[in-house]
Design brief:
By secondary structure, this protein is an alpha/beta fold. It contains 15 helices and 13 strands. It folds into two domains: about 300 residues, Rossmann fold (3-Layer(aba) Sandwich), CATH 3.40.50.720; about 120 residues, Dihydrodipicolinate Reductase, domain 2 (2-Layer Sandwich), CATH 3.30.360. The longest helix has 21 residues. It binds nicotinamide-adenine-dinucleotide. The site of nicotinamide-adenine-dinucleotide has 36 residues, from helix 1, strand 4, helix 11 and helix 14.
Length: about 450
Amino acid sequence: MATQKAEAPKGKLGVLVVGLGAVTTTFMAGVLMTRKGLAKPVGSMTQYDKIRVGKGEDKKYLHYKDIVPLAELDDIVFGAWDVYPANAFESAVNAEVLKAKDLLPVKEELEAIKPMKAAFDKNYAKRLDGDNVKDVKDRWDMVEQLREDIRNFKKETGVDRVVVLWAASTEVYVPVDENIHGTLEALEAAMKADDKEHVSPSMCYAYAALSEGCPFIMGAPNTTVDIPAMWELAEKTKMPIAGKDFKTGQTLVKSGFAPIIGTRCLGLNGWFSTNILGNRDGLVLDEPANFRTKEVSKLSTLESILVPEDQPDLYGHGNDEDTQYYHKVRINYYPPRNDNKEGWDNIDIFGWMGYPMQIKINFLCRDSILAAPLCLDLVLLSDLAQRAGRYGTQRFLSFFLKSPMHDYTQGEVPVNHLFQQYVMLKNAIREMGGYEADEEID
Ligand SMILES: NC(=O)c1ccc[n+]([C@@H]2O[C@H](COP(=O)([O-])OP(=O)(O)OC[C@H]3O[C@@H](n4cnc5c(N)ncnc54)[C@H](O)[C@@H]3O)[C@@H](O)[C@H]2O)c1
């Protein structure tokens, strides 16, 4: 795709979020509080990071907004869908992520965000039991109703553009089936035939968003836009897609820490990651079929950073079929911790002459506090990409994602290495700002 400078935004940017739970309400409250000058958007690259443009005597370090025409926080208008009818203020209170002092100043704005009825199928998240759900004839009707929601939102708010972000619960694992997910024609036929097994609700949201001219971002590990049928739709509608799974806590650490082992040429025998968390996300992930989706996403990170075939002496010492070294990820639902997830990583490494050592990382994080800035960055950068004429999979957004989308039909290997991902991000910002991409990804 030819690189192109991004056009300046006109008018307001609608941000329609699927799921009005802990992450979404923390994201929304933070943006609204920042707008009032009452909070700082810490952790957001689009608001804080500075990158170099130009070389030699011409080099300057600039914020993204001084390189590319990003939408302003003041221009964002929020909307959402959820299975439960609680408005954004009630839902934020229930989530218990933010303190009253960080919610009350924007109470009215949050109360005005009332979720539209969800496109939902209980078979995809058995532990949810809300009644704010659309009555649909079939999957195609689900798409049609969602398209109408997007059109109505645009009409009612007068926004110029809309980005759709999935920050709803993780759905059960849907393996890619080439016969259904391989082409747009087959996917549409399956929707019309009401094939509930292969067409998840998230696919209906993505299909509706792309068809209505909205970029779509998958923040959970669901099989949704990472299938050839959706790539075809994104090409046809010229819309950006990004996914999948916000890279927040443990995987962020992993994709930043694994390069230390790799660069220093140390050996790896095994990496055991375990988590406890007690929010609704944890409750849904306690269901084995939903956990499977997360596990696949979390496991993929190490394999492309520490590659056993490249360094059999260093990484070939375990006997795990896929990775050689033992790589295990566990998540346990533990209500007392609510949104404050605790992650432990035990890393068994070895050094000179094979002598073993251990590294332990204990991250006491706050899930939604880490995810909120990613929502903002993904939304603003997808909107920017669309104005720069970029469409299809946005690989430069891999930095923000646990399981970056890649064309597996062509044998493409995803880039999981945090610092290589950062180079891709910086180069894309440079290009969309009319500068040359000038760093090598190696
Ligand atoms: N916070 C993190 O660090 C992090 C990292 C990576 C991914 N995620 C993912 O982000 C998502 C949101 O996390 P959360 O903590 O806000 O969860 P949450 O349970 O608080 O909120 C999710 C909301 O989605 C709603 N929902 C479920 N299915 C829906 C549908 N089909 N349509 C509309 N609404 C639907 C639920 O009712 C719920 O209110 C989860 O999938 C989680 O795995 C979170």
